[in-house]
């Protein structure tokens, strides 16, 4: 297990390095000149050249990348070209919205998708099982923006239970208000992602029900559903852990859209604004953090899966 963990750690570092290079050089392919943007339409060529030199934009790209990646290893993601603020500090501030939003979304997705997915499989061929399956397929096809708008209409406009937009200025100093502001965004992401997870849980449960060990347990006197719950669901749980790692990427993408819809001051909203302003140091820092988070979650899920699944340990 230790050798496997070290191998996976090395692959994680390689993946992060490759991701950082792709992010850095891809952003430099985008059209436009940051120095010209800062100088404005009235800036002279001399002023633009001076800005480019002061920001280190006149040196070769490989040298700019080396300087940036060296700072990343020190925990310094650079500074904003437009404001001079530390990218690391701004990301830490915005993460206070995005991270709780992602956690709440994942909890909501798991809480309704796992039991309903198992129930849908156990009630296969019956009216309620079919209704659950059709409902999951329908929700999985719903655009996250449309789902968010419908939730706002119902819970914010019609019922008035929850705020439609914004985040309290006091932030988490007022926990109740902060949580209320995140409920609708988390529901929006959680329902859509949960519907996709529910379809997988149903499929995995049906596959487990067809395994020999479940049929053997049923032949020994247990009911089909009791045998499935006792012997099949632990196997389904292993598969769910793996899929949850993939769900994290979907939640991050959903957060970028939802933070715009609900006017939440998170990383996703900041990323969209920085792309529009061509603030490359901030954009590359934000993308690296989001990409790194997805890779690290996948790494942890892989280790956890191997630790609890004896079949993987026996395969090597």
Explain how this protein is built.
With 316 residues, the protein is mainly alpha-helical. It has two domains: 1-80 and 279-316, no CATH class; 95-267, MetI-like fold. It is built from 13 helices and no strands. The chain has helices spanning 2-29, 34-39, 45-54, 61-73, 87-122, 127-140, 144-158, 175-209, 212-219, 224-261, 267-277, 280-308, 310-315. The longest helix has 38 residues, at 224-261. The termini are close together. 28% of the residues are buried. The mean pLDDT is 83.
Task: Describe the secondary structure blueprint for this structure.
Blueprint: H1 2-29, H2 34-39, H3 45-54, H4 61-73, H5 87-122, H6 127-140, H7 144-158, H8 175-209, H9 212-219, H10 224-261, H11 267-277, H12 280-308, H13 310-315
Q: Write down the domain tally.
A: 2
Low-confidence stretches: none
Number of strands: 0
Count of helical regions: 13
Strand content: under 5%
General form: globular
Helix % is over 70%
User: At the first level of CATH, what is the class of the largest domain?
Assistant: Mainly Alpha
Rounded to the nearest angstrom, the radius of gyration is 24 Å
Give the CA-CA distance, first to last residue: 10 Å
Order of helices and strands: HHHHHHHHHHHHH
State the fourth-level CATH superfamily of the largest domain: MetI-like
User: Biggest sheet: strands, sense, closure?
Assistant: none
- Average pLDDT confidence is 83
What CATH calls the topology of the largest domain is MetI-like fold
Coarse structural class? mainly alpha
CATH architecture assignment of the largest domain:
Orthogonal Bundle
């Amino acid at each position: 297990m230790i050798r496997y963990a070290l191998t996976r750690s090395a692959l994680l570092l390689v993946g992060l390095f490759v991701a950082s290079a792709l992010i850095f050089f891809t952003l430099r392919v985008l059209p436009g000149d940051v120095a010209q943007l800062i100088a404005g339409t009235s800036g002279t060529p001399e002023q633009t050249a001076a800005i480019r030199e002061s920001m280190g934009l006149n040196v070769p790209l490989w040298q700019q990348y080396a300087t940036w990646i060296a700072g990343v290893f020190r925990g310094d993601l650079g500074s904003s070209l437009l404001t001079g603020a530390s990218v690391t500090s701004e990301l830490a501030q915005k993460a206070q919205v995005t991270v709780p939003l992602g956690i709440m979304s994942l909890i909501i997705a798991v809480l309704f998708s796992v039991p309903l997915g198992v129930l849908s499989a156990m009630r296969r061929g019956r009216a309620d099982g079919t209704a659950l399956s059709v409902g999951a397929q329908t929700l999985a096809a719903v655009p996250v923006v449309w789902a968010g708008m419908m939730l706002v209409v119902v819970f914010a406009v019609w019922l008035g239970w929850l705020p439609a937009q914004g985040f309290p200025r006091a932030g988490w100093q007022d926990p109740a208000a902060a949580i209320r502001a995140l409920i609708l965004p988390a529901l929006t992401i959680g329902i859509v992602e949960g519907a996709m997870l529910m379809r997988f849980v149903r499929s995995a449960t049906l596959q487990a029900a067809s395994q020999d060990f479940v049929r053997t347990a049923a032949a020994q006197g247990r009911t089909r559903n009791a045998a499935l719950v006792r012997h099949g669901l632990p196997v389904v749980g292993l598969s769910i852990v793996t899929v949850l790692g993939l769900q994290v990427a979907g939640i991050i993408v959903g957060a970028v859209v939802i933070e715009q819809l609900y006017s939440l001051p998170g990383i996703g909203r900041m990323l969209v604004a920085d792309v529009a302003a061509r603030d490359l140091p901030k954009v590359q820092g934000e993308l690296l953090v989001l990409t790194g988070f997805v890779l690290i979650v996948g790494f942890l899920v892989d280790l956890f899966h191997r630790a609890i699944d004896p079949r993987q340990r026996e395969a090597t």
